[in-house]
């Protein structure tokens, strides 16, 4: 059995130990401060006698350390160091997760903690039950009050039959040994957990929820959060973005959500109108006669592509018909379609049009489309495609 130094002192970063076993890249020590991960918290990394400790795992009551390139054997003494920046970030977030979920479950007791994932790039918990941004705002306020109140975080081992376990947060199926460690945050929370924690909530500095999204299965939510300096930096960055967003839609920051919702409504109305006018314009299109073929062509600003494509497909339902249309938004999209009875290849016509505007496209013989980044050159592309069609029809 490895002596688990992190249990007695989660702040210990440097220690020496004796190698007890070696298996390939994996090294077992008589004692270790490397946390092998658990309770959703990722394992530590660090250095063993100057070599990188890449992965640490718990295996059959032992802690095994992956140290690529080592030449150690049983009995060797090693100097070890835990990557403290990483560990501190992880154990802070882990304690932050205790705090956040405890506050949430107090607000809404039916919430169930499904999954915890505390890694360097991402700290998240998946919760089953109804959650909302207003709830998150309230929970964050309480969490940050608890941080400001500098609540002590302590732990104590109790027997698995202890009365203490009756009213704490615990997942009974996760208890393996005879003893259970109870982690307490002030008078706010008691939970069974064998992980590593900070000693006082003030070490969190700040807790910020950065994302709330629906997760699978339906009814689950994933909450992402950050603590410490990263939380502060993210809060400042997002606050500045929010203020700029409010300014750009000429709303008071407090009214930004309403303003966006109004804008969305107005956009839908405008899109409907453009679609209706676009359909009318498409219906009124008169074909030109080119070498015995009916050619429909036009440039449509801001019309959604689906409406345009539907109309094109309708037009080429008639024999001896070609449609060359351009749709213009931030980009230029050119469509070429030919009725099935014609030998003309749409792709050839399209390429002649796109060539003059450095565009790219593809498709089938009867329907091809492509784009270019110069919306203002739509007429040029359209004319080139029409000239191309004329040339191909004459040659044929
Ligand atoms: Zn914990």
Describe the protein in words.
- With 396 residues, the protein is α+β, with helices and mostly antiparallel strands.
- The strands form five sheets. Strands 6-5-9-2-3-8-7 form a seven-stranded antiparallel beta sheet, with no helix packed on it. Strands 17-18-19-20-22-21 form a six-stranded mixed beta sheet, sandwiched between helices. It has a four-stranded antiparallel beta sheet with strand order 10-11-16-15.
- A hairpin with a 3-residue loop joins strand 13 and strand 14.
- It has eight helices and 22 strands.
- The chain is elongated and about 90 Å long.
- Helix 2 (84-107) crosses helix 3 (133-148) and helix 7 crosses helix 8.
- The protein has four domains: 3-82, Elongation Factor Tu (Ef-tu), domain 3, CATH 2.40.30.130; 88-248, Threonyl-tRNA Synthetase, Chain A, domain 2 (2-Layer Sandwich); 250-283; 285-395, Diaminopimelate Epimerase, Chain A, domain 1, CATH 3.10.310.
- Helices cover 33% and strands 32% of the residues.
- Zinc ion is lined by residues 39, 94, 98, 183, 193, 195, 197.
Ligands and ions found = zinc ion
User: Which geometry do the CA atoms define?
Assistant: elongated
What is the CATH-assigned architecture of the largest domain? 2-Layer Sandwich
The oligomeric state of the chains shown is single chain
Tell me the number of helical segments per DSSP (H or I, 4 or more residues long): 8
Q: How is the biggest beta sheet arranged?
A: 7 strands, antiparallel
Query: Helix-strand pattern, N to C?
Result: EHEEEEEEEEHEEHEEEEEHHEEHEEHEEH
Report how far the terminal alpha carbons are from each other. Answer: 86 Å
Helix share, percent? 25-40%
The strand line-up of the biggest sheet is: 6-5-9-2-3-8-7
At the first level of CATH, what is the class of the largest domain? Alpha Beta
Write out the CATH superfamily name of the largest domain. Threonyl-trna Synthetase, Chain A, domain 2
């Amino acid at each position: 059995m490895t002596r688990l130094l992190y249990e007695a002192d989660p702040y210990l970063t440097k220690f020496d130990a004796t190698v007890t076993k070696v298996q390939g890249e994996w090294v077992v020590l008589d004692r270790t401060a490397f946390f092998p991960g658990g309770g959703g918290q990722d394992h530590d990394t660090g250095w063993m006698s100057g070599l990188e400790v890449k992965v640490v795992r718990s295996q059959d009551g032992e802690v095994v350390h992956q140290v690529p390139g080592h030449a150690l054997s049983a009995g060797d003494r090693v100097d070890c160091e835990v990557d403290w920046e990483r560990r501190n970030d992880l154990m802070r977030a882990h304690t932050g997760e205790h705090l956040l979920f405890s506050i949430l479950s107090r607000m809404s007791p039916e919430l169930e903690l499904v999954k915890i994932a505390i890694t360097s790039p991402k700290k998240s918990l998946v919760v089953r039950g109804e959650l909302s941004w207003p709830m998150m705002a309230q929970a964050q306020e309480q969490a940050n009050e608890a941080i400001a109140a500098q609540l002590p975080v302590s732990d104590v081992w109790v027997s698995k039959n202890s009365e203490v376990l009756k009213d704490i947060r615990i997942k009974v199926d996760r208890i393996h040994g005879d003893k259970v460690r109870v982690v307490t945050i002030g008078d706010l929370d008691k939970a069974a957990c064998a992980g590593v924690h900070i000693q006082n909530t003030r070490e969190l500095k700040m807790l910020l929820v950065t994302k709330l999204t629906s997760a699978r299965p339906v009814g689950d939510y994933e909450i992402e959060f950050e603590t410490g300096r990263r939380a502060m930096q993210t809060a400042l960055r997002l606050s500045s973005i929010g203020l700029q967003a409010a300014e750009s839609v000429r709303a008071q920051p407090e009214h930004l959500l309403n303003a966006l919702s109004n804008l969305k409504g107005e956009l839908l109305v405008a899109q409907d109108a453009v679609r209706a006018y676009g359909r009318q314009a498409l219906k009124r299109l008169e074909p030109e006669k080119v070498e015995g073929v009916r050619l429909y062509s036009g440039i449509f600003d801001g019309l959604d592509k689906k409406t345009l494509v539907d109309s094109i497909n309708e037009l080429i339902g008639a024999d001896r018909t070609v449609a060359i249309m351009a749709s213009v938004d931030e980009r230029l999209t050119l469509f070429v379609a030919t009725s099935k009875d014609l030998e003309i290849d749409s792709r050839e016509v399209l390429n002649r049009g796109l060539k003059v505007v450095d565009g790219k496209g593809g498709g089938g013989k009867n329907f091809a489309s492509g784009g270019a980044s110069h919306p203002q050159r739509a007429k040029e592309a359209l004319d080139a495609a029409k000239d191309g069609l004329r040339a191909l029809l004459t040659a044929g």
